TrEMBL record:
This is intramembrane prenyl-peptidase Rce1. It comes from the Eukaryota. The lineage of its organism: Eukaryota, Viridiplantae, Chlorophyta, core chlorophytes, Trebouxiophyceae. Belongs to the peptidase U48 family. Its EC number is 3.4.26.1. It is found in: Endoplasmic reticulum membrane. It is an enzyme of class 3 (hydrolase). Keywords: Endoplasmic reticulum, Hydrolase, Membrane, Protease, Transmembrane, Transmembrane helix. The chain crosses the membrane at residues 6-26, 33-58, 115-137, 149-172, 207-227.
Amino acid sequence: MTSPGLHTAFAGCAYLVVYVLPLYVLPRASEAAALLGLTAHGFWSSVAQGLGLTALLFAGPLAYRALGAVPAHGPPRHVSRRSALQVLRDLCLAPLSEELVFRASLLAFLRQRGLGAAAAVAASLALFAAAHVHHLVDRVWHGGHSVRVALRAAALQAAYTAAFGLHAAALWTAGRSVAGPVAAHLACNLAGLPPLGAMLRHRQAPLLLLLTVMGVAGWARSIAWLFRRHAW
């Protein structure tokens, strides 16, 4: 049985085929490709920016991994425990389909229709978060968790999802290429949620906490700068 998340990814791909392609790609392919950020122009710089900004956000967890707290080689534990279909969803289908839908299509569409930059980003974040509500249902119905525990986990994931949505929106705004958001999405899914509890119990906890705070602060300043400089 496929998971609800896989259904979401397939639904995103179906949206692209049924809605985006007929309206944009078929009549004016080159214009549509530029609108969706599917051109080669700025591809590698967008990827580098996406991965660099993601590494800054994950400065603490990356240092935690570098200190040998988790195996330095091989996939992260949360990836190795998943089925091949789930890995395909998280590392291929979800990054590509969700970034094409929520950033390349939705965010650009809202701005073209005259919505302000802040309002357009907020609307795309709200819809992006709503697309992940199925995790709450999955924890209760399939995971056997109580509603209270599931709500607590869902609140944490909602905050993480909102932060990533802002992250991806800034990358899209800066580069107008889907490559950066897709690369960042893949990296975040590969990294998973930061192991804050384990980091605080580590013998180098003060250093890890400092790196985490500095990384998040640097990320927030970078995001604000990207929006100020590249708002369109």
